[in-house]
Amino acid sequence: MWTKPITIGRHAHGDQYKARDFVVDKSGTFKMVFVPKDGSGAKEWEVFNFPGGGVGMGMYNTDESILGFAHSCFQYAIQKKWPLYLSTKNTILKAYDGRFKDLFQEVFDKHYKMEFDKHKIWYEHRLIDDMVAQVLKSAGGFVWACKNYDGDVQSDILAQGFGSLGLMTSVLVCPDGKTIEAEAAHGTVTRHFREHQKGRPTSTNPIASIFAWTRGLQHRGKLDSNPQLVRFAETLERVCVETVESGTMTKDLAGCIHGLSNVKLNEHFVNTTDFLDAIKSNLDRALSKQ
After folding, report:
1. Other Cβ atoms closer than 10 A to 58
2. Domain boundaries, position 26
3. Could you read off the pLDDT of 1-29 as tens digits, one per residue?
């Protein structure tokens, strides 16, 4: 049972998301070719001899991007003082996933091992199958570095496991430690918006959108050495959590407790505007005490 947060670091570059995939409609040979820019001889790999129709794909990643991802993950783990795990399938993709494993280990040994030891945290590589099982058995409290597709899938599983996509924060972090983008991890909730356009009340969870702003404001406050801004953002986040814990919540969260078919408006959940009003009231009260 998860009693602590879990942060997934998704390597948002390359792999399936920049792949060239195609359909073949006849028998033939699928080959991959690499042509060096220095004029040296090309390298060629035969992938498969198709006896008939099928599908193929070629994908890539770069050392520069993997190294940047590694630095961001190690820096974030140090900031949170949590252990870091990298998951791959290097037993099957020995060269591709093996490169992720090797570069992460190289960066850790060269730049971060002493800092990790100082905070009594650790870094480990795990096979993705083993890591998923360990995550389900764990109490949480760690950073999980994933390749692009794994991070896409596992982040949604984690969010739902904690109750709702509306509770998940999403921050794009650059290796320079200065440039970030904070956003709500869920989609645009189109169905709720169509109801809103018709003048009907909805019970849409705004917490992820609020936290997108607070994470951005916290970072801005740290860059500008503005403790008041950081404190405001932290207070707003705390108030959101306390409001839900007090029993005032939106329908998605009430459904996690009572079952969606059993929940009733104003008994188990409130609509969007009433929830925001409750947060505003609680925030004003919290700020007045500072």
Report:
1. 14
2. 21-56
3. 789 999 999 999 999 999 999 999 999 99
